[in-house]
Protein backbone atom coordinates (compact mmCIF):
# COMPACT_ATOMS: atom_id res chain seq x y z
CA UNK A 1 0.00 0.00 0.00
CA UNK A 2 1.47 3.35 -1.05
CA UNK A 3 0.15 6.53 0.56
CA UNK A 4 0.58 10.06 -0.77
CA UNK A 5 0.24 12.55 2.09
CA UNK A 6 -0.36 16.20 1.23
CA UNK A 7 -0.21 19.41 3.28
CA UNK A 8 -1.74 21.85 0.76
CA UNK A 9 -0.72 25.45 0.27
CA UNK A 10 -0.23 27.76 -2.69
CA UNK A 11 3.33 28.89 -2.04
CA UNK A 12 4.45 25.64 -0.39
CA UNK A 13 2.65 22.29 -0.66
CA UNK A 14 4.20 19.53 1.42
CA UNK A 15 4.16 15.93 0.23
CA UNK A 16 5.16 12.65 1.81
CA UNK A 17 5.07 9.24 0.18
CA UNK A 18 5.02 6.16 2.38
CA UNK A 19 4.84 2.47 1.67
CA UNK A 20 2.93 0.70 4.40
CA UNK A 21 4.70 -2.57 5.14
CA UNK A 22 2.57 -3.60 8.13
CA UNK A 23 0.34 -1.91 10.75
CA UNK A 24 3.23 -0.06 12.41
CA UNK A 25 5.93 -0.33 9.78
CA UNK A 26 6.42 2.19 6.98
CA UNK A 27 9.08 2.82 4.38
CA UNK A 28 9.62 6.45 3.38
CA UNK A 29 9.75 6.60 -0.42
CA UNK A 30 10.05 10.38 -0.74
CA UNK A 31 9.07 13.65 0.86
CA UNK A 32 9.54 17.32 0.15
CA UNK A 33 7.72 20.43 -0.93
CA UNK A 34 6.30 21.87 -4.10
CA UNK A 35 7.38 25.51 -4.21
CA UNK A 36 5.72 28.21 -6.25
CA UNK A 37 6.85 31.81 -6.54
CA UNK A 38 4.99 34.01 -4.05
CA UNK A 39 4.28 36.92 -6.41
CA UNK A 40 3.01 35.04 -9.48
CA UNK A 41 -0.61 34.75 -10.59
CA UNK A 42 -2.71 32.20 -8.69
CA UNK A 43 -3.59 30.22 -11.82
CA UNK A 44 0.14 29.70 -12.52
CA UNK A 45 0.69 28.49 -8.94
CA UNK A 46 -2.19 26.03 -9.28
CA UNK A 47 -0.84 24.81 -12.62
CA UNK A 48 2.58 24.17 -11.03
CA UNK A 49 1.01 22.27 -8.12
CA UNK A 50 -1.08 20.22 -10.57
CA UNK A 51 1.94 19.35 -12.70
CA UNK A 52 4.02 18.25 -9.70
CA UNK A 53 1.21 16.24 -8.06
CA UNK A 54 0.60 14.43 -11.37
CA UNK A 55 4.32 13.68 -11.60
CA UNK A 56 4.41 12.22 -8.06
CA UNK A 57 1.33 10.08 -8.74
CA UNK A 58 2.75 8.76 -12.02
CA UNK A 59 6.13 7.97 -10.44
CA UNK A 60 5.00 6.37 -7.16
CA UNK A 61 1.55 5.04 -8.13
CA UNK A 62 -0.08 5.56 -4.72
CA UNK A 63 -3.20 3.65 -3.72
CA UNK A 64 -4.57 6.54 -1.74
CA UNK A 65 -4.19 10.22 -0.98
CA UNK A 66 -4.26 11.57 2.56
CA UNK A 67 -4.75 15.34 2.70
CA UNK A 68 -5.15 17.98 5.35
CA UNK A 69 -8.73 19.10 5.78
CA UNK A 70 -9.30 22.84 5.95
CA UNK A 71 -9.80 24.48 9.26
CA UNK A 72 -11.07 27.95 10.07
CA UNK A 73 -8.57 30.71 9.39
CA UNK A 74 -9.12 34.36 10.25
CA UNK A 75 -7.72 35.41 6.88
CA UNK A 76 -10.33 34.64 4.17
CA UNK A 77 -7.74 35.18 1.42
CA UNK A 78 -5.59 32.39 2.88
CA UNK A 79 -8.43 29.92 3.20
CA UNK A 80 -9.54 30.58 -0.38
CA UNK A 81 -6.06 30.04 -1.85
CA UNK A 82 -5.44 26.91 0.24
CA UNK A 83 -8.87 25.61 -0.82
CA UNK A 84 -7.86 26.06 -4.43
CA UNK A 85 -4.59 24.16 -3.93
CA UNK A 86 -6.52 21.44 -2.12
CA UNK A 87 -8.97 21.29 -5.02
CA UNK A 88 -6.14 20.70 -7.48
CA UNK A 89 -4.87 17.81 -5.34
CA UNK A 90 -8.34 16.30 -4.95
CA UNK A 91 -8.96 16.63 -8.69
CA UNK A 92 -5.86 14.51 -9.27
CA UNK A 93 -7.12 11.95 -6.75
CA UNK A 94 -10.26 11.74 -8.88
CA UNK A 95 -8.39 11.54 -12.18
CA UNK A 96 -6.14 8.74 -10.90
CA UNK A 97 -8.92 7.01 -8.94
CA UNK A 98 -7.21 7.33 -5.56
CA UNK A 99 -9.09 6.74 -2.35
CA UNK A 100 -9.01 9.95 -0.26
CA UNK A 101 -8.61 10.35 3.49
CA UNK A 102 -8.92 13.81 5.05
CA UNK A 103 -7.68 14.92 8.47
CA UNK A 104 -7.85 18.20 10.36
CA UNK A 105 -4.69 19.38 12.14
CA UNK A 106 -6.40 18.49 15.44
CA UNK A 107 -7.02 14.91 14.23
CA UNK A 108 -3.39 14.57 13.11
CA UNK A 109 -2.10 15.78 16.49
CA UNK A 110 -4.50 13.52 18.36
CA UNK A 111 -3.56 10.49 16.27
CA UNK A 112 0.22 10.94 16.46
CA UNK A 113 0.69 12.52 19.89
CA UNK A 114 -2.53 11.64 21.68
CA UNK A 115 -3.25 15.29 22.38
CA UNK A 116 -5.11 17.61 19.99
CA UNK A 117 -3.27 20.73 21.13
CA UNK A 118 0.22 19.27 20.68
CA UNK A 119 2.76 21.63 19.16
CA UNK A 120 4.54 21.17 15.83
CA UNK A 121 7.73 19.90 17.50
CA UNK A 122 5.84 17.09 19.27
CA UNK A 123 4.20 15.98 16.01
CA UNK A 124 7.54 16.07 14.18
CA UNK A 125 9.18 14.03 16.93
CA UNK A 126 6.47 11.38 16.56
CA UNK A 127 6.87 11.36 12.75
CA UNK A 128 10.60 10.72 13.26
CA UNK A 129 9.92 7.88 15.72
CA UNK A 130 7.07 6.21 13.82
CA UNK A 131 9.08 6.22 10.59
CA UNK A 132 12.31 5.14 12.36
CA UNK A 133 14.23 8.11 11.00
CA UNK A 134 17.44 9.39 12.57
CA UNK A 135 16.32 12.99 12.05
CA UNK A 136 13.18 15.11 11.96
CA UNK A 137 12.12 15.59 8.32
CA UNK A 138 12.45 19.13 7.01
CA UNK A 139 10.96 21.42 5.89
CA UNK A 140 7.96 21.55 8.23
CA UNK A 141 5.42 21.21 5.40
CA UNK A 142 7.01 17.91 4.34
CA UNK A 143 6.96 16.62 7.94
CA UNK A 144 3.29 17.63 8.16
CA UNK A 145 2.55 15.72 4.94
CA UNK A 146 4.25 12.62 6.35
CA UNK A 147 2.16 12.97 9.52
CA UNK A 148 -0.99 13.16 7.41
CA UNK A 149 0.10 10.05 5.48
CA UNK A 150 0.74 8.18 8.76
CA UNK A 151 -2.83 8.96 9.86
CA UNK A 152 -4.20 7.19 6.79
CA UNK A 153 -1.79 4.31 7.28
CA UNK A 154 -3.03 3.80 10.82
CA UNK A 155 -6.65 3.93 9.66
CA UNK A 156 -6.19 1.35 6.89
CA UNK A 157 -5.90 -2.30 7.87
UniProtKB/TrEMBL annotation:
One of its GO terms (molecular function) is magnesium ion binding. Its EC number is 3.1.21.10. One of its GO terms (biological process) is DNA repair. Keywords: Cytoplasm, DNA damage, DNA recombination, DNA repair, DNA-binding, Endonuclease, Hydrolase, Magnesium, Metal-binding, Nuclease. The keyword DNA-binding applies. One of its GO terms (cellular component) is Holliday junction resolvase complex. InterPro entries: RNaseH-like_sf, RNaseH_sf, X-over_junc_endoDNase_Mg_BS, X-over_junc_endoDNase_RuvC. Mg(2+) 2 binds at residue 68. It is an enzyme of class 3 (hydrolase). Its main location: cytoplasm. It is found in: Cytoplasm. SUPFAM superfamilies: Ribonuclease H-like. It holds the Pfam family RuvC. Belongs to the RuvC family. The RuvA-RuvB-RuvC complex processes Holliday junction (HJ) DNA during genetic recombination and DNA repair. Endonuclease that resolves HJ intermediates. Cleaves cruciform DNA by making single-stranded nicks across the HJ at symmetrical positions within the homologous arms, yielding a 5'-phosphate and a 3'-hydroxyl group; requires a central core of homology in the junction. The consensus cleavage sequence is 5'-(A/T)TT(C/G)-3'. Cleavage occurs on the 3'-side of the TT dinucleotide at the point of strand exchange. This is Crossover junction endodeoxyribonuclease RuvC. The lineage of its organism: Bacteria, Katanobacteria.
Amino acid sequence: MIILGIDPGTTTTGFGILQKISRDNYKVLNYGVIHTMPKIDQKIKLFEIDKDIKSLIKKYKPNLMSIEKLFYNKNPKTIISVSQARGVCLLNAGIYNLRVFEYTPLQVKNTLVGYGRADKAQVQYMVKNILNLSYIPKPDDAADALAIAICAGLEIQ
